[in-house]
Design brief:
single chain; 70 residues; mainly alpha; 3 helices; 0% strand; globular
């Protein structure tokens, strides 16, 4: 933050824009589940709904080049 890493900010802004295309909480949880390779993180509680499989696959496909798994 204080080092002004422009590339990291650009990546974070791009990921934020991608998760904002659909339900924000479900999208953030889907990205977290992708990053940690644990689908349990996709679970949301009512009244929220999870992303569909197609929505999840589309989102993680776009995020994958920006946020590789360890």
């Amino acid at each position: 933050f204080h080092e002004a890493d422009g590339e990291a900010l650009k990546t974070a802004s791009t990921i934020r824009a991608l998760v904002s295309e659909r339900s924000l909480i479900a999208s953030v949880k889907a990205v977290l589940a992708y990053r940690l390779d644990d689908r349990a993180f996709e679970t949301v509680l009512p009244p929220l709904i999870c992303l569909t499989e197609a929505e999840r696959d589309e989102l993680t496909g776009k995020v994958a080049p920006l946020l590789p798994r360890d």
